[in-house]
Sequence to fold (479 residues):
Amino acid sequence: MKYEPVIGLEIHVQLNSATKMFCDCPNRPGDEPNRNTCPICLWLPGALPKLSREALQKATLACLALNCTIQQESGFDQKVYYYPDLPKGFQLSQHHKPLARNGWVDIVGEDGRSKRLRIHHIHMEEDVAKLVHEMEGKTPISLVDFNRAGTPLIEIVSEADMRSPDEAMEYVKTLRNQLRYTGSAECSLELGTLRVDANISLRPLGTDEFNTKVEVKNMNSIRNVGDAIAYEITRQTHCLDKGESIVLHTRLWDPEKRMTSPMRSKFSGPCIPDPSVSRIVVSQEWLKEIQGRLPEMPAQKTERFLKVYGLTPEEASNMSLERDLSDFFEAVVKQDISPRKVAGWITTYLIPILRDRNQTMRETFLTPDRFSQLLSMLDKDMINAQSAKEVLLQLLSSDETIEEIVKKGQFQQVSDTTELETVIDRIISEHPSDVEDFRKGNTKVIGFLMGLAMKASQGKANPKLLKEILTKRLDSIVP
Fold:
Protein backbone atom coordinates (compact mmCIF):
# COMPACT_ATOMS: atom_id res chain seq x y z
CA MET A 1 0.00 0.00 0.00
CA LYS A 2 1.15 3.53 -0.80
CA TYR A 3 -1.19 5.11 1.71
CA GLU A 4 -2.22 4.58 5.30
CA PRO A 5 -5.89 5.14 6.24
CA VAL A 6 -6.52 7.45 9.19
CA ILE A 7 -10.00 6.94 10.66
CA GLY A 8 -11.90 8.63 13.46
CA LEU A 9 -15.54 8.10 14.43
CA GLU A 10 -18.18 10.45 15.82
CA ILE A 11 -20.96 8.41 17.39
CA HIS A 12 -24.30 9.82 18.52
CA VAL A 13 -26.05 7.74 21.18
CA GLN A 14 -29.64 8.33 22.20
CA LEU A 15 -30.06 8.05 25.98
CA ASN A 16 -33.11 6.12 27.19
CA SER A 17 -34.22 8.57 29.86
CA ALA A 18 -37.96 8.81 30.50
CA THR A 19 -38.16 12.42 29.33
CA LYS A 20 -36.42 14.67 26.85
CA MET A 21 -33.26 16.62 27.63
CA PHE A 22 -34.74 19.98 28.62
CA CYS A 23 -38.47 19.36 29.21
CA ASP A 24 -40.90 16.80 30.64
CA CYS A 25 -42.17 15.49 27.30
CA PRO A 26 -41.91 11.66 26.95
CA ASN A 27 -38.72 10.48 25.27
CA ARG A 28 -40.49 8.34 22.63
CA PRO A 29 -39.49 9.50 19.11
CA GLY A 30 -41.44 6.68 17.42
CA ASP A 31 -44.87 7.81 18.66
CA GLU A 32 -47.48 9.38 16.39
CA PRO A 33 -45.91 12.52 14.81
CA ASN A 34 -45.85 15.67 16.95
CA ARG A 35 -47.58 13.98 19.87
CA ASN A 36 -44.79 14.52 22.43
CA THR A 37 -44.22 18.26 22.23
CA CYS A 38 -44.39 21.35 24.42
CA PRO A 39 -43.36 25.02 24.18
CA ILE A 40 -39.81 24.12 25.28
CA CYS A 41 -39.03 21.47 22.64
CA LEU A 42 -40.90 23.54 20.05
CA TRP A 43 -38.81 26.52 21.22
CA LEU A 44 -41.68 28.97 21.45
CA PRO A 45 -40.82 32.47 22.73
CA GLY A 46 -40.47 32.65 26.51
CA ALA A 47 -40.01 28.90 27.07
CA LEU A 48 -36.93 28.13 29.17
CA PRO A 49 -35.09 24.77 29.10
CA LYS A 50 -34.33 22.83 32.28
CA LEU A 51 -31.72 20.07 32.17
CA SER A 52 -32.97 16.57 33.03
CA ARG A 53 -31.15 15.09 36.04
CA GLU A 54 -31.80 11.55 34.74
CA ALA A 55 -30.27 12.38 31.35
CA LEU A 56 -27.18 13.78 33.07
CA GLN A 57 -26.86 10.68 35.26
CA LYS A 58 -27.16 8.31 32.29
CA ALA A 59 -24.68 10.37 30.27
CA THR A 60 -22.20 10.30 33.17
CA LEU A 61 -22.58 6.52 33.56
CA ALA A 62 -21.89 6.11 29.83
CA CYS A 63 -18.76 8.25 30.09
CA LEU A 64 -17.46 6.24 33.05
CA ALA A 65 -18.10 2.98 31.19
CA LEU A 66 -15.79 4.29 28.43
CA ASN A 67 -13.04 5.15 30.93
CA CYS A 68 -13.44 8.90 30.55
CA THR A 69 -12.56 11.60 33.07
CA ILE A 70 -15.65 13.57 34.09
CA GLN A 71 -14.99 17.31 33.93
CA GLN A 72 -15.69 19.25 37.10
CA GLU A 73 -17.47 21.90 35.06
CA SER A 74 -19.26 21.65 31.72
CA GLY A 75 -21.82 23.78 29.92
CA PHE A 76 -24.03 24.15 26.87
CA ASP A 77 -23.48 26.27 23.79
CA GLN A 78 -25.67 27.39 20.93
CA LYS A 79 -24.42 25.56 17.82
CA VAL A 80 -25.77 27.85 15.16
CA TYR A 81 -27.05 26.56 11.82
CA TYR A 82 -30.23 26.91 9.79
CA TYR A 83 -32.28 23.91 8.68
CA PRO A 84 -36.02 23.04 8.79
CA ASP A 85 -35.48 20.43 11.52
CA LEU A 86 -34.10 23.15 13.83
CA PRO A 87 -36.47 26.13 13.63
CA LYS A 88 -34.88 28.05 16.49
CA GLY A 89 -31.70 28.32 14.42
CA PHE A 90 -29.33 26.60 16.86
CA GLN A 91 -28.78 23.30 18.68
CA LEU A 92 -27.87 23.08 22.35
CA SER A 93 -24.57 21.20 22.51
CA GLN A 94 -21.45 21.15 24.69
CA HIS A 95 -18.88 22.51 22.25
CA HIS A 96 -16.48 24.43 24.50
CA LYS A 97 -16.87 22.53 27.77
CA PRO A 98 -17.80 18.84 27.22
CA LEU A 99 -18.96 16.53 29.99
CA ALA A 100 -15.96 14.17 29.78
CA ARG A 101 -12.53 13.77 28.15
CA ASN A 102 -9.73 11.25 27.59
CA GLY A 103 -11.47 7.90 27.46
CA TRP A 104 -10.57 4.65 25.72
CA VAL A 105 -11.73 1.19 24.73
CA ASP A 106 -9.63 -1.89 24.03
CA ILE A 107 -10.31 -3.98 20.93
CA VAL A 108 -8.75 -7.11 19.47
CA GLY A 109 -7.09 -6.19 16.18
CA GLU A 110 -6.89 -8.23 12.99
CA ASP A 111 -3.52 -9.60 14.18
CA GLY A 112 -5.14 -10.98 17.33
CA ARG A 113 -3.45 -8.42 19.59
CA SER A 114 -5.16 -6.00 21.92
CA LYS A 115 -5.20 -2.38 20.74
CA ARG A 116 -6.28 0.67 22.72
CA LEU A 117 -8.38 3.22 20.83
CA ARG A 118 -8.65 6.62 22.48
CA ILE A 119 -11.71 8.80 22.94
CA HIS A 120 -11.03 12.54 22.70
CA HIS A 121 -14.20 13.68 24.48
CA ILE A 122 -17.89 12.99 25.07
CA HIS A 123 -20.42 15.79 25.11
CA MET A 124 -24.17 16.04 25.65
CA GLU A 125 -26.53 17.59 23.13
CA GLU A 126 -30.18 17.67 22.16
CA ASP A 127 -31.42 15.83 19.09
CA VAL A 128 -33.21 17.75 16.35
CA ALA A 129 -36.63 17.20 14.81
CA LYS A 130 -37.14 14.66 12.01
CA LEU A 131 -37.87 15.58 8.41
CA VAL A 132 -40.33 13.27 6.64
CA HIS A 133 -40.33 13.43 2.85
CA GLU A 134 -43.55 12.32 1.10
CA MET A 135 -45.48 12.71 -2.13
CA GLU A 136 -48.79 14.54 -2.25
CA GLY A 137 -50.09 13.37 -5.58
CA LYS A 138 -47.20 14.20 -7.91
CA THR A 139 -45.85 16.93 -5.66
CA PRO A 140 -42.98 16.14 -3.24
CA ILE A 141 -43.52 17.62 0.23
CA SER A 142 -41.47 17.67 3.43
CA LEU A 143 -43.03 17.46 6.89
CA VAL A 144 -41.47 17.98 10.32
CA ASP A 145 -42.01 15.60 13.26
CA PHE A 146 -40.96 17.21 16.56
CA ASN A 147 -41.23 14.04 18.67
CA ARG A 148 -37.46 13.60 18.37
CA ALA A 149 -36.64 17.26 19.06
CA GLY A 150 -34.95 17.53 22.44
CA THR A 151 -34.18 13.83 22.81
CA PRO A 152 -31.03 13.52 24.97
CA LEU A 153 -27.89 12.48 23.13
CA ILE A 154 -24.24 12.00 23.87
CA GLU A 155 -21.71 12.37 21.08
CA ILE A 156 -18.58 10.25 21.43
CA VAL A 157 -15.67 11.70 19.49
CA SER A 158 -12.74 9.33 19.03
CA GLU A 159 -9.14 10.15 18.30
CA ALA A 160 -8.07 9.25 14.75
CA ASP A 161 -6.52 5.99 16.00
CA MET A 162 -8.16 3.50 13.64
CA ARG A 163 -6.28 2.26 10.60
CA SER A 164 -8.71 -0.16 8.95
CA PRO A 165 -12.44 -0.84 8.47
CA ASP A 166 -12.09 -3.86 10.77
CA GLU A 167 -10.75 -1.73 13.63
CA ALA A 168 -13.61 0.74 13.16
CA MET A 169 -16.19 -2.07 13.31
CA GLU A 170 -14.60 -3.57 16.43
CA TYR A 171 -14.58 -0.13 18.05
CA VAL A 172 -18.32 0.31 17.43
CA LYS A 173 -19.09 -3.22 18.70
CA THR A 174 -17.06 -2.76 21.87
CA LEU A 175 -18.42 0.70 22.57
CA ARG A 176 -22.00 -0.48 21.98
CA ASN A 177 -21.60 -3.41 24.37
CA GLN A 178 -20.06 -1.21 27.08
CA LEU A 179 -22.91 1.30 26.86
CA ARG A 180 -25.62 -1.36 26.88
CA TYR A 181 -24.15 -2.77 30.09
CA THR A 182 -24.80 0.54 31.87
CA GLY A 183 -28.48 0.53 30.91
CA SER A 184 -28.17 4.13 29.68
CA ALA A 185 -28.94 3.41 26.03
CA GLU A 186 -30.31 0.77 23.68
CA CYS A 187 -27.64 1.47 21.03
CA SER A 188 -29.46 0.13 17.95
CA LEU A 189 -27.99 1.15 14.61
CA GLU A 190 -31.05 -0.26 12.87
CA LEU A 191 -33.46 1.87 14.92
CA GLY A 192 -31.23 4.94 14.87
CA THR A 193 -30.56 5.09 18.62
CA LEU A 194 -26.87 4.81 17.73
CA ARG A 195 -25.61 6.73 14.69
CA VAL A 196 -22.07 6.60 13.33
CA ASP A 197 -20.25 9.25 11.29
CA ALA A 198 -16.83 8.25 9.97
CA ASN A 199 -14.01 10.66 9.16
CA ILE A 200 -11.56 9.10 6.69
CA SER A 201 -8.33 10.45 5.23
CA LEU A 202 -5.23 8.92 3.62
CA ARG A 203 -1.59 9.80 4.12
CA PRO A 204 1.63 8.48 2.59
CA LEU A 205 2.63 5.28 4.35
CA GLY A 206 5.25 5.91 7.02
CA THR A 207 4.33 9.56 7.66
CA ASP A 208 2.55 11.17 10.62
CA GLU A 209 0.83 14.08 8.90
CA PHE A 210 -2.95 14.49 8.79
CA ASN A 211 -4.50 15.11 5.40
CA THR A 212 -7.94 16.39 4.36
CA LYS A 213 -10.69 14.15 5.65
CA VAL A 214 -14.06 13.20 4.23
CA GLU A 215 -17.04 12.54 6.49
CA VAL A 216 -19.40 9.63 5.70
CA LYS A 217 -22.94 9.35 7.14
CA ASN A 218 -26.00 7.08 6.85
CA MET A 219 -24.53 3.75 8.00
CA ASN A 220 -27.25 1.74 9.76
CA SER A 221 -25.33 -1.44 10.60
CA ILE A 222 -21.85 -2.36 11.75
CA ARG A 223 -21.25 -4.12 8.43
CA ASN A 224 -22.22 -0.92 6.60
CA VAL A 225 -19.72 1.02 8.71
CA GLY A 226 -16.94 -1.29 7.53
CA ASP A 227 -18.10 -1.36 3.92
CA ALA A 228 -18.49 2.43 3.70
CA ILE A 229 -15.01 3.04 5.10
CA ALA A 230 -13.50 0.41 2.78
CA TYR A 231 -15.18 2.02 -0.23
CA GLU A 232 -14.02 5.49 0.77
CA ILE A 233 -10.42 4.28 1.20
CA THR A 234 -10.52 2.86 -2.34
CA ARG A 235 -12.16 6.00 -3.76
CA GLN A 236 -9.65 8.36 -2.16
CA THR A 237 -6.76 6.14 -3.27
CA HIS A 238 -7.92 6.42 -6.89
CA CYS A 239 -8.24 10.21 -6.53
CA LEU A 240 -4.73 10.58 -5.14
CA ASP A 241 -3.27 8.26 -7.79
CA LYS A 242 -4.79 10.50 -10.47
CA GLY A 243 -3.35 13.62 -8.86
CA GLU A 244 -6.75 14.89 -7.65
CA SER A 245 -6.93 16.69 -4.33
CA ILE A 246 -9.28 15.54 -1.57
CA VAL A 247 -11.88 18.19 -0.69
CA LEU A 248 -13.39 18.50 2.77
CA HIS A 249 -17.05 17.51 2.46
CA THR A 250 -19.76 15.10 3.67
CA ARG A 251 -20.85 11.99 1.78
CA LEU A 252 -23.72 9.53 2.17
CA TRP A 253 -23.36 5.74 2.12
CA ASP A 254 -25.81 3.98 -0.21
CA PRO A 255 -26.14 0.38 1.04
CA GLU A 256 -27.90 -0.79 -2.14
CA LYS A 257 -25.38 0.65 -4.59
CA ARG A 258 -22.60 -0.02 -2.04
CA MET A 259 -20.95 3.32 -2.66
CA THR A 260 -20.69 6.81 -1.16
CA SER A 261 -22.03 9.91 -2.90
CA PRO A 262 -21.57 13.66 -2.19
CA MET A 263 -24.08 15.16 0.23
CA ARG A 264 -22.91 18.69 1.03
CA SER A 265 -19.85 20.78 1.72
CA LYS A 266 -18.66 20.71 5.32
CA PHE A 267 -20.13 23.62 7.26
CA SER A 268 -19.11 24.71 10.73
CA GLY A 269 -21.22 27.47 12.22
CA PRO A 270 -20.44 29.53 15.32
CA CYS A 271 -20.85 28.08 18.82
CA ILE A 272 -21.59 30.57 21.59
CA PRO A 273 -22.31 29.89 25.29
CA ASP A 274 -26.04 29.54 25.97
CA PRO A 275 -27.31 31.79 28.78
CA SER A 276 -30.55 29.87 29.40
CA VAL A 277 -29.07 26.56 30.65
CA SER A 278 -27.12 26.54 33.90
CA ARG A 279 -23.58 25.19 33.82
CA ILE A 280 -23.01 21.70 35.22
CA VAL A 281 -20.75 21.51 38.29
CA VAL A 282 -19.91 17.96 39.39
CA SER A 283 -19.13 17.36 43.06
CA GLN A 284 -16.95 14.43 44.14
CA GLU A 285 -19.79 13.11 46.33
CA TRP A 286 -22.22 13.01 43.40
CA LEU A 287 -19.62 11.47 41.09
CA LYS A 288 -18.83 8.76 43.66
CA GLU A 289 -22.53 7.93 43.86
CA ILE A 290 -22.78 7.53 40.06
CA GLN A 291 -19.58 5.45 39.99
CA GLY A 292 -21.22 3.13 42.51
CA ARG A 293 -23.94 2.37 39.95
CA LEU A 294 -21.45 1.19 37.34
CA PRO A 295 -21.98 -2.56 36.79
CA GLU A 296 -19.33 -5.22 36.29
CA MET A 297 -18.17 -4.51 32.74
CA PRO A 298 -17.60 -7.10 29.94
CA ALA A 299 -13.81 -7.42 30.37
CA GLN A 300 -14.16 -7.94 34.14
CA LYS A 301 -16.97 -10.43 33.61
CA THR A 302 -14.96 -12.39 31.02
CA GLU A 303 -12.07 -12.70 33.50
CA ARG A 304 -14.41 -13.93 36.25
CA PHE A 305 -16.12 -16.44 33.96
CA LEU A 306 -12.73 -17.90 33.07
CA LYS A 307 -11.79 -18.40 36.73
CA VAL A 308 -15.12 -19.31 38.30
CA TYR A 309 -16.76 -21.43 35.58
CA GLY A 310 -13.75 -22.86 33.75
CA LEU A 311 -14.90 -21.59 30.36
CA THR A 312 -12.54 -21.26 27.41
CA PRO A 313 -11.52 -17.67 26.54
CA GLU A 314 -13.90 -17.72 23.56
CA GLU A 315 -16.80 -19.05 25.64
CA ALA A 316 -16.19 -16.51 28.42
CA SER A 317 -16.05 -13.67 25.89
CA ASN A 318 -19.27 -14.80 24.18
CA MET A 319 -21.12 -15.08 27.50
CA SER A 320 -20.01 -11.55 28.48
CA LEU A 321 -20.95 -9.69 25.30
CA GLU A 322 -24.43 -8.59 26.42
CA ARG A 323 -25.53 -7.92 29.98
CA ASP A 324 -28.89 -9.70 29.54
CA LEU A 325 -27.10 -12.71 28.06
CA SER A 326 -24.50 -12.92 30.83
CA ASP A 327 -27.21 -12.65 33.51
CA PHE A 328 -29.19 -15.39 31.73
CA PHE A 329 -26.09 -17.63 31.55
CA GLU A 330 -25.34 -17.31 35.26
CA ALA A 331 -28.98 -17.87 36.24
CA VAL A 332 -29.02 -21.14 34.27
CA VAL A 333 -25.69 -22.30 35.71
CA LYS A 334 -27.08 -21.78 39.23
CA GLN A 335 -29.65 -24.50 38.41
CA ASP A 336 -26.76 -26.99 38.70
CA ILE A 337 -26.17 -27.27 34.95
CA SER A 338 -22.65 -27.61 33.53
CA PRO A 339 -21.34 -24.08 32.69
CA ARG A 340 -19.67 -25.29 29.50
CA LYS A 341 -22.83 -27.05 28.37
CA VAL A 342 -24.89 -23.91 29.00
CA ALA A 343 -22.37 -21.75 27.14
CA GLY A 344 -22.27 -24.23 24.26
CA TRP A 345 -26.03 -24.31 23.80
CA ILE A 346 -26.38 -20.53 24.10
CA THR A 347 -23.61 -19.90 21.58
CA THR A 348 -24.46 -22.67 19.10
CA TYR A 349 -28.25 -22.61 19.12
CA LEU A 350 -29.87 -19.81 21.15
CA ILE A 351 -27.93 -16.78 19.85
CA PRO A 352 -28.29 -17.74 16.14
CA ILE A 353 -32.06 -18.27 16.59
CA LEU A 354 -32.47 -14.86 18.26
CA ARG A 355 -30.38 -13.26 15.52
CA ASP A 356 -32.48 -14.85 12.78
CA ARG A 357 -35.68 -13.70 14.48
CA ASN A 358 -34.26 -10.25 15.19
CA GLN A 359 -35.29 -10.68 18.84
CA THR A 360 -33.78 -10.02 22.22
CA MET A 361 -34.11 -12.43 25.13
CA ARG A 362 -36.70 -10.14 26.72
CA GLU A 363 -38.96 -10.48 23.69
CA THR A 364 -39.32 -14.26 24.11
CA PHE A 365 -40.95 -16.61 26.64
CA LEU A 366 -37.61 -18.23 27.45
CA THR A 367 -36.51 -17.95 31.08
CA PRO A 368 -33.45 -19.38 32.84
CA ASP A 369 -35.69 -21.95 34.57
CA ARG A 370 -37.22 -23.17 31.29
CA PHE A 371 -33.81 -23.35 29.61
CA SER A 372 -32.30 -25.29 32.52
CA GLN A 373 -35.24 -27.73 32.40
CA LEU A 374 -34.50 -28.31 28.71
CA LEU A 375 -30.82 -29.09 29.35
CA SER A 376 -31.74 -31.26 32.34
CA MET A 377 -34.10 -33.34 30.15
CA LEU A 378 -31.26 -33.72 27.65
CA ASP A 379 -28.85 -34.87 30.38
CA LYS A 380 -31.37 -37.45 31.60
CA ASP A 381 -31.89 -38.84 28.08
CA MET A 382 -35.57 -37.87 28.19
CA ILE A 383 -35.08 -36.11 24.83
CA ASN A 384 -32.22 -36.18 22.37
CA ALA A 385 -30.28 -33.23 20.97
CA GLN A 386 -32.33 -33.02 17.77
CA SER A 387 -35.61 -32.91 19.68
CA ALA A 388 -34.13 -30.44 22.16
CA LYS A 389 -33.55 -27.95 19.32
CA GLU A 390 -37.21 -28.24 18.31
CA VAL A 391 -38.35 -27.82 21.92
CA LEU A 392 -36.11 -24.73 22.26
CA LEU A 393 -37.87 -23.08 19.32
CA GLN A 394 -41.24 -23.61 20.99
CA LEU A 395 -39.99 -22.42 24.39
CA LEU A 396 -39.12 -19.11 22.74
CA SER A 397 -42.59 -18.66 21.23
CA SER A 398 -44.95 -20.32 23.72
CA ASP A 399 -45.65 -19.96 27.45
CA GLU A 400 -46.65 -23.63 27.69
CA THR A 401 -44.68 -25.73 30.17
CA ILE A 402 -41.82 -27.75 28.76
CA GLU A 403 -43.65 -30.96 29.75
CA GLU A 404 -46.68 -29.89 27.71
CA ILE A 405 -44.50 -29.04 24.71
CA VAL A 406 -42.64 -32.37 24.85
CA LYS A 407 -45.83 -34.39 25.24
CA LYS A 408 -47.78 -32.52 22.56
CA GLY A 409 -44.93 -32.72 20.06
CA GLN A 410 -44.10 -36.33 20.99
CA PHE A 411 -40.48 -35.34 21.50
CA GLN A 412 -39.77 -38.04 24.11
CA GLN A 413 -36.62 -39.98 23.27
CA VAL A 414 -37.08 -43.57 22.17
CA SER A 415 -34.82 -45.85 24.23
CA ASP A 416 -36.79 -49.07 23.91
CA THR A 417 -34.24 -51.57 22.55
CA THR A 418 -36.89 -53.74 20.88
CA GLU A 419 -38.26 -50.78 18.94
CA LEU A 420 -34.76 -49.60 17.96
CA GLU A 421 -33.70 -53.10 16.89
CA THR A 422 -36.72 -53.23 14.58
CA VAL A 423 -35.68 -49.93 12.97
CA ILE A 424 -32.06 -51.12 12.55
CA ASP A 425 -33.07 -54.46 11.03
CA ARG A 426 -35.27 -52.72 8.47
CA ILE A 427 -32.52 -50.24 7.49
CA ILE A 428 -29.97 -53.07 7.07
CA SER A 429 -32.33 -55.17 4.96
CA GLU A 430 -33.14 -52.19 2.72
CA HIS A 431 -29.47 -51.31 2.05
CA PRO A 432 -27.57 -54.54 1.28
CA SER A 433 -24.97 -52.75 -0.89
CA ASP A 434 -23.97 -50.49 2.02
CA VAL A 435 -23.69 -53.50 4.31
CA GLU A 436 -21.42 -55.09 1.71
CA ASP A 437 -19.27 -51.94 1.69
CA PHE A 438 -18.93 -52.26 5.46
CA ARG A 439 -17.82 -55.87 5.04
CA LYS A 440 -15.08 -54.60 2.73
CA GLY A 441 -13.79 -52.25 5.41
CA ASN A 442 -15.66 -48.99 4.71
CA THR A 443 -16.52 -47.90 8.27
CA LYS A 444 -18.01 -44.59 7.02
CA VAL A 445 -21.11 -46.60 6.15
CA ILE A 446 -22.06 -46.53 9.87
CA GLY A 447 -22.63 -42.78 9.73
CA PHE A 448 -24.82 -43.10 6.64
CA LEU A 449 -26.92 -45.91 8.13
CA MET A 450 -27.20 -44.00 11.44
CA GLY A 451 -28.63 -41.05 9.56
CA LEU A 452 -31.23 -43.26 7.90
CA ALA A 453 -32.13 -44.89 11.21
CA MET A 454 -32.53 -41.52 12.96
CA LYS A 455 -34.74 -40.33 10.11
CA ALA A 456 -36.83 -43.52 10.35
CA SER A 457 -37.36 -42.83 14.06
CA GLN A 458 -38.38 -39.23 13.21
CA GLY A 459 -35.31 -38.00 15.10
CA LYS A 460 -36.51 -39.39 18.42
CA ALA A 461 -34.16 -42.35 18.85
CA ASN A 462 -31.53 -42.38 21.58
CA PRO A 463 -28.49 -41.90 19.29
CA LYS A 464 -26.01 -43.54 21.67
CA LEU A 465 -28.14 -46.68 22.08
CA LEU A 466 -29.01 -46.69 18.38
CA LYS A 467 -25.34 -46.67 17.38
CA GLU A 468 -24.55 -49.50 19.80
CA ILE A 469 -27.30 -51.67 18.29
CA LEU A 470 -26.28 -50.82 14.72
CA THR A 471 -22.61 -51.57 15.38
CA LYS A 472 -23.44 -54.93 16.98
CA ARG A 473 -25.73 -55.89 14.08
CA LEU A 474 -23.09 -55.03 11.47
CA ASP A 475 -20.33 -56.80 13.40
CA SER A 476 -22.46 -59.91 13.68
CA ILE A 477 -22.95 -60.21 9.91
CA VAL A 478 -19.31 -59.59 9.01
CA PRO A 479 -17.55 -62.99 8.47
The chain has a mean pLDDT of 90. The radius of gyration is 29 Å.
